[in-house]
Amino acid sequence: MNWVIIWKVVFVALLSAFGLMSVLVMVRGAADIRKLLAALKDEADQADAETSKSDLN
Q: Could you confirm whether the keyword Transmembrane appears in this record (predicted)?
C-alpha cells in the first residue's frame, strides 16, 4: 500500500465523519430551535393571558 492510497482513505474517512457530524448537528439543532420557539410562544401566551385578566379588573 502506498502513501497516496493511505491518504485517500484518511481523506474520505474524515470527510465522511465531517458530513455525518454536520447532519447530526443540523437535526439536533433544529429540534432545539423548535423547543425554544415553543417555550417563547408559551411564555408570550401566558403574558397575554395575565394582561387580559388585569384589563378585566
A: yes
